[in-house]
Amino acid sequence: MANEEFMATTAVTGERIDYASILPGRTKALILAGVLLGLFLAALDQTIVSTALPAIVADFNGLDLVAWISTGYLLASTTMVPIYGKLSDLYGRRAILIWGIIVFLLGSALCGIAADMVQLIIFRVIQGVGAAALTSTAFAVPADLFAPAERARYMGMFGGVFGLSSVVGPFLGGLITDQISWHWVFYVNLPLGLIALAFILRKMPPLKSGLRAPIDWLGTIFLTLAVVPLLLGLTLDKGQYPWGSPLIVGLLATAAVSTAIFLTVERRAPSPIIDFRLFRIRTFWVAIAASVLNGSAFFGAILFLSLFLVNVVGLSATAAGTAQIPLMLAFVTSSITASALVQRVGRYKPFIVGGFIVMLFGFFLMTQLSAQSSVWDVTWRMVILGMGIGPAMPLLNLALQNAVPFQQIGSATAGRQFFQQLGQAVGAALFGVVLSTTLTAQIAANVAPVVQSLPAAVQEQLDLSHLRSATVAAEGAAGEQADIAGKLAQAAEAYGLPAAEAQAIGGQVSLALKTSFASSITRIYSYAIWLVAAALALVVLFLPEQPLRKTNRAENPASAPVFE
After folding, report:
1. pLDDT of residue 171
2. Confidence at residue 211, expressed as pLDDT on a 0 to 100 scale
3. Domain residues for 64?
4. Maximal CA-CA distance, the chain
């Protein structure tokens, strides 16, 4: 009854086909193959391009603009996610997926032939517009093809795609860049994308939700005006644009005002992009909140793990990427395994709770790392952390889809993803502040005493100012540490100190720098513990254990949405 009342005030609904009941298993498998391949393309693009950035910078001499290659993509993909989610409810998943693949492939081809950095950034924005359609719509497709009771094991596959892309991306990007050229990092998308497009064109039906409503153009405009300034304010280089600078303050103020207008517009829209009445469903808002917290913690773990491996353990950037493979393999394995177990027992909450508990323990173990930690010390902790991270994304998605009205699955699923991506951006920005402030204090506490004990002529050879920026590239920071220690040892030897003593001084400074980085990064993990603990508390206290529906037809009262 609650479901029908909800839909009656949402929009006019048309006749909907129950594809879960009428499509044969082989057709469903082929549809899933095409969707997973498209999703893999979008996920792979986020990791494969990063390894090609040094070659791109060298080719275009565009170091000042290099950050915009990622920022432009992020702005477009994040902003468009909820918009595509709503459009897929209105016009069907097939139409939006086809559009997304075509735009993504167009952007990829243009990126490959870009003649300068500005062109590449513009074409990356086009790529991001296409990728958003793939990532937002792909997670809703299993809801069209399978009833919730059957859907769980397939959701694990979708979570596994992101883990697999994180493993394959850096390796493939480095191989292509070194052996062919960076242009082919983008061209490689073309054959894979065409295969995915062929699967969808030949096998996928429209997959329409039955929702009929006008497009919320006003909401689209103000959502863009809210999200783009917010992400720019969070992601712009804080070394160049500090938090208190007029530009950052202006961007965040614009985002705040636009958000207030957006909320007002959405309350009056007949079919809003983000229907905030969905937050009356307890499972929906718990899944959203837990996804935001989980996204912030997870992204922080990945983002700063590379810094630890490079600056503390002493690996190269490439080796650091390879060293993270166990984390991703554990993530993929636990994601698929947990989803399969949910399929068998018919309950999702125990596995979400269990995943958060393991993640909590994993982050605690990461806080125990130090300047003396080896690759093995990091690896086994990463595996435990990955095992905890894996179940959260697919199972929170499953719980949310099981709870909301079917006609809202596209926008509800995209809404969860949208808020999770915002959580990642906010988490990265806040953790960056923690790293910057802590690193400054740690360098003053650990390195300064060593330097101050040296003769003035030797001290002049050491400049630590650039190490206080949390935005320094991982490989660059490691190289600068080695360069500082080496120059200091040479200066001490030239000053007249014995070679062994000079090398020892260089070693002391190197250890002090490693200690500073280790303390700063482990502090980030200590804050991540609180984020995961908050997500765990939300799930334990407020997430209802609703029976997984066995059909996509109108819900039984027992499985209708649980409203506040």
Report:
1. 76
2. 62
3. 19-216
4. 88
